[in-house]
Each structure stands twice: as structure tokens, then as C-alpha cells.
Amino acid sequence: MANTFGIKGASFGKGDVVDFKKIDKVKVLSHLWVYARRHMVRICMIIFFVIVSNVLALLSPVVTGKAIAAMIGPGKVDFHLLGVNVGLLGVLYVSSALFTWMQNIFMIRMTQQVIYDIRVDVFSHIESLPMSFFDSVYKGDIISRISYDIDNISSCFSTDIVHLLTGVITVTGSLLMMILINPTLTLVFCIIVPVTFLFARKITKYTRKLFRLQQYKYGELNAYVEEALTGQKTLKAYCHEAASVDGFHKVNGELNDSGYKAQFFSSIVMPVMNFLSNLSFLMVSSFGAVLMLRGKLDISNLSSFILYSKKFSGPINETANIINVIQSAFSASERVFSILEVKPEAREEETRHLDSVNGSVEIRDIFFSYQPDKEIITHFTLNVPKGSHIAIVGHTGAGKTTIANLLMKFYNYQKGEIRIDRKDIQNIDRQDVRDQYGMVLQDTWLFQGTVMENLRYGRFEATDEEVISAAKAADAHDFIMKLPQGYETVISEDVTSMSQGQKQLLTIARALVADPPMLILDEATSSVDTITENKIQKAMDLLMEGRTSFIIAHRLSTIRNADVIIVMEDGKIVEQGNHEELLNKQGAYYTLYNSQFADV
């Protein structure tokens, strides 16, 4: 499903083609300023330290020139004047270094706090996004933005911004001092400066697109790796290791090419800038020597001027390189902040809360589509009394899971009504709606934590006794106690010490601990063997007891005892009744049932 979330040029939906239009720097800077302005005291201190350290450094060429002038001639040295100036140089260098160290300390602290805030805001925002977002993006690309791209911003903040500010002060101060020493020599020096700026502007304009492409390819690579690692069993089962490596070579090659081009053209900057700097130095030295011979410039001023010219050229050379890094950081910032521009789930301004729920559900003439031109659910109507067990069956793509998504308010339907206890869920807070359901899915998601923490996921205030009681009811207690630390054993989603059936029993126990009035069971037994299925089915029967339950199933053996079975085709109910009634009709359900049990 192709979808574009975020600002232009930073799309990351599946199937999207990256758009390399000009980065909206004003928008990116406005986002960064939101975080930076929280640290105005630190910013002011950093600026103060930068100015002081650079002003002290700018005084050193004048003092150096005076120290050189202390050598009056061959064998004649004014040791007092030389000693004073050398001592003064030492004070200037030590003081400048101390203020530079202070600026770095403050900058590092501020940067880490800014990056911390950005990560928190991005992750918190991701948690507020609708399911449509997660269905439309590559998870690896999002991970790349949260990790690599934010690290890129951090590197730029902590060093390059300060270097850029330092460069501006040094260049401005050096130029003023050169003008004060000799305006004519300054004009000679400045002949090369426009050429330097034009070159820097030209090369950075070209490398901007290359760095953006590099960022995009990093996202693609992460997405590919994440997909390959997640599907390792399937990949190995089909002997696709070689094909997977070939695919990685392709994606990695594209990243390598884009990275090479970006780094190659940015690497041209320093040699050219150094050449222009040396050319400028040659012109200044030659013309300065002529002025000295004519008595219009002394050795002290010439020495100071040459040192200032080197100070002027140094930041210019560095700035051109820093601008390339900043271009990369702008691209990274654009990718990160594009996530923050994705609209979260619509705010529900005038919704009501549910105090207590009996569990009756009414679905009235629902229409729903993921895309405007393709309806998935049409004219869907269903009445579910309190405590009923409703099974939903049908071929793949019939709309079964979509109904579960609508019941949970993961998506909003376009027409119709869904009511809980005669209350339209459109007028009920989505959190309240979701609190009424426990979900047991085919994918047995477990997070990094202890067994006890996983079982408490739906109700953190549950006591140990309640959790253990739920685990016993779900027939999970015995195998939990065989784990190394029992209920305190640390597990994760990809734990290999448990079978699929055991993981599923944990998710059923988790739902029992949560104790919701209603349940959604989506293909909960589809990935286990028959013996394990029977064990899980017993646990599910206990879980469903007294609760309104929606059971989505492909295995029809698991829903024979449902109060009502509805058969869906193309988003509509084509049949409805209990197991025996539907078999006697010899319609769609009869065909489905016989397709599974014809050989039995």
C-alpha cells in the first residue's frame, strides 16, 4: 500500500519514490529551534565562550608580530620586549584553550539534551499514530530515522555548529585586523576570496542531492535487513539465502554508490580550498615583501598580516567541509521531523467515557474502505447480545480482520454505526473502547521482560496471586515453572526456549489477567499442531466464559460451538447461523467446512 507521510522530499511509505526537491531549510530550522530555545541560558553561555576564546586567539598574531620585531637585527634582540610578548602569548593561548574547553562542555551537554528530547518526542509521536501509518511504512526505515539520522543531527550539533560560529568570528575578526594593518595588502588578499566562495557554493549545491540520496539509501538498507532478519525461518526453508545476499548486495551497492559520490565530491573541497589558500598566501607574501622594500610596511605588521591571512583562510576551508556535513544533517533532520508532521490519530474532542460495560455490540450497516476507490466492507449488520460467541469465517481477504480493526477503533468506518451497550463508539473515547477488549492474535507478541511482566501487560496492578491463577487456568503454569527463574525468567518476542503453543498460552493468560468484558480472538490457533490446538482451545473456552467474544478463524473445528457463525465474502455477510444450521443450508459454510474435512 503506497502512502506518503510527512513533508515533501521525505516520504517513506511503501512503494514511494524519493523526491529530491530542495530541502525546506526554514521548516527544518524552525523544528530545531523549538528544541534549542529550551536551553537559552546554555546557548548564551556558549556564544559568550566562543566570542571570548576567538577574540583571545585573534590577539595572538599582533603579539607574535611584536615578538618578531623584538629581534632588532643580526645579533640584536630586545630580550625584555621578547619575554613580555612570549609571556603574553602563553596567557592568550591558555585562556583561549580554557574558554574553548568550557564552550565544548556546555555544547555537549546541550546537544545531548536536545537529542534526548527529539528521540522522546519522535517515539512518543509514533505511539500516537494511527494503524494506517504502520500498515504503510517500512519499519526498518523508521528505525533508521530514530537511530542513524538522529545521531547525524547530534554530530552536527555538538561540533559543526560551534565550528561554523567560530569560523564566522575568526573570518570577520581577521579581515578587520588585516584592514587595520594595511588596506592595500587586504585588497590583494581578497582577490581570491570570491573565487573561494563561488566554488564552495557550487560544490555544496551539487552534493546536497547526493547526501539526501545517501540518507534515503540508509533507510532502504535498514528496511531490507529488518525484513530479512524477521523472516529468517521462511528464507532458510525456501533455500533463499543466496538470493537474499544478492538482494543485499544490490541495496548495499546502491548505498555504496550514493555514499561514494557524496564523499567523492565533498572530498574535492579541501584540496581546492587549500590550493586557493596557498595561492592567496603566495600573493600576500610577494606583495608584502614589495611593500617592505619600499618602506611602507615593517616586519612586525607583515608577520601579523600573514598570520591573520592564515587564520582567515583556515575557517573558510573548514567551513566548506562543514557545510557538506551540515547538508547531510539537514537531510537527516528532514527525515526525522517528517515523522512529527504525520497527523496522529484524530483527537476526540467531545467523546464520552464508558463506566461499566455489559458487552452487547450492534453493528449497523457499516461501510469501510482503506482506499477511497475500493470498498472492503459494505452493508455489514450484526447484533451481538451480551456474552455471545460470534465466529467470523471466510476466505482470505473477505474482511474478517478488518471487522476486528473497526471494533477496536484502529480504523474509522465511513458510514454506519457500531454500538457498545447502545452507545455509538464514534462518541466514545477510543482508549475506553479498546479497554473493553482483550486480544489474542495469531502473532504471539511478547516483549523483553520477565514472564510476570508480560502477563501483567493488560493490568499492571494485578497481584502475583492473580497472575499465577490466570496462568494455571490457561494451562501455562507448569511450563513456566520449568523455566530457569520461573515467573521471573526474562523472555522476549523472539525467545526460542518456548514453543509457539506455549507463547500462545501466555497471551491467553495475559488476557485472563486483564479480565476484559469482551474478546477478539484472531486466528489464535492457526499456527499450532492439533494436540496443542486442543490445549489452547480449552484455555480459550475458559477465557471466553461469560464474555462477548469475536472469534476469527480459518480452522472451522475451533468454532463449532459458537452461538452464531457468520460467513463473509467480499466484505458482506452471506450466511449466518450456528454450526448445524449452516451445514444444513449446504451453502458457503458447507463448502468451506467440507473443503477442510472432506478427507476425514
Describe the structure.
The chain is an alpha/beta fold and 600 residues long. It folds into two domains: 25-340, ABC transporter type 1, transmembrane domain (ABC transporter transmembrane region fold); 361-597, 3-Layer(aba) Sandwich (Rossmann fold). 61% of the residues lie in helices and 11% in strands. A six-stranded mixed sheet has the order 8-11-12-5-13-14, sandwiched between helices. Strands 4-3-6-7 form a four-stranded antiparallel sheet, with helices on one face. Strand 1 and strand 2 form a beta hairpin. The longest helix is centred in the N-terminal third of the chain and has 49 residues, at 79-127.
CATH topology heading of the largest domain = ABC transporter transmembrane region fold
Which residues sit in consecutive blocks of at least 5 with pLDDT less than 50? Answer: 1-12, 14-20
Which class best fits the helix and strand makeup?
alpha/beta
Number of helices: 20
Alpha-carbon Rg, integer:
35 Å
Overall domain count: 2
CATH class of the largest domain: Mainly Alpha
Beta-strand level of the residues, as a percent range? 5-15%
Overall mean pLDDT stands at: 80
Notable characteristics:
Rossmann fold, 14 strands, 600 residues, elongated, alpha/beta, ABC transporter transmembrane region fold, 4-stranded antiparallel β-sheet, 6-stranded mixed β-sheet
